[in-house]
Amino acid sequence: MGVTSVAERLAALVRTIPDFPRPGIQFRDITTLLLDPEGFQLAVDALADSVSGPVDLVAAIEARGFAFGGPLALRLGAGMLLIRKDGKLPGETIAEDYALEYGTDRLAMHVDACAPGKRVLIVDDLLATGGTALAAARLVERAGGTVVGARFIVDLIDLGGSDALRAAGVDSVSLLTYEGG
């Protein structure tokens, strides 16, 4: 039996669902990875191992980003900052609009969730165009925090999200890359 890389082991746990949510889309479903405790641990460890330098907060993006954000924050000795759809947080918030393929959406975080000077790592399950991650980065920066990077399980490289993050000065690491949308 040969040695299997981390990426190969994780890729084997991510299922592809063709034509979801519409024809021509190859949906990369990480819920199957979450069901596997060894794979889930491997993903969290690989994300943590990709981080150098101190992190004060892990900013996890709703909803699947929460699954990785909590364990990653604990592993890094950091707190967890929730980035949610607008209207979902109970306290006073700040919000950022971002572009979708058809229209816009809005992310929010508590106004007091990130103290000035905090070093923040953004985490989500999937990187496509980068709009969601860039909106999260703008929220952190508006609060006075410093974005030290962004981490993802999957990067759909043809959609340009990693390029958009790089252009914005955000270090981006993804555990798996897929061509096509």
TrEMBL record:
Keywords recorded for this protein, A-Z: Cytoplasm, Glycosyltransferase, Purine salvage, Transferase
Name of the protein in question: Adenine phosphoribosyltransferase
Transferase keyword on record: yes
Gene: apt
EC annotation from Swiss-Prot or TrEMBL: 2.4.2.7
Predominant subcellular localization, coarse grouping: cytoplasm
Phosphoribosyltransferase domain ranges (all copies): 52-152
Subunit structure: Homodimer.
Residues annotated as transmembrane: none
An example Gene Ontology biological process: purine ribonucleoside salvage
Pathway(s): Purine metabolism; AMP biosynthesis via salvage pathway; AMP from adenine: step 1/1
GO cellular component: cytoplasm
Subcellular location: Cytoplasm
Function statement: Catalyzes a salvage reaction resulting in the formation of AMP, that is energically less costly than de novo synthesis.
Catalytic activity: AMP + diphosphate = 5-phospho-alpha-D-ribose 1-diphosphate + adenine
Pfam families assigned to the protein according to its UniProt record, in alphabetical order: Pribosyltran
Family, as annotated: Belongs to the purine/pyrimidine phosphoribosyltransferase family.
UniProt xrefs under InterPro entries: Ade_phspho_trans (IPR005764), Adenine_PRTase (IPR050120), PRTase-like (IPR029057), PRTase_dom (IPR000836)
GO molecular function ontology, one term from the record: adenine phosphoribosyltransferase activity
